[in-house]
Amino acid sequence: PGADDVERAYSFLSLPQVARLWGDEAPRAHLKEPRVRQSEGGSRQITFREFMAGIPIDGSYLTVQLDSHDRVVGALARFVHFPRLPAPAVIPISLGVARAAAEAHVAGADCGGDAVCRTALLDSFAATPTPGEEVLLSPLIYEGWTTSRAEVLAFRFDFARRTVFIDAVSALVLLEWSSERSVSFGYQVWAPGGSDAKCSYHDKTCLL
Question: Among 32, 77, 166, 167, which residue is least crowded by beta carbons within 10 Å?
Answer without folding.
Answer: 32
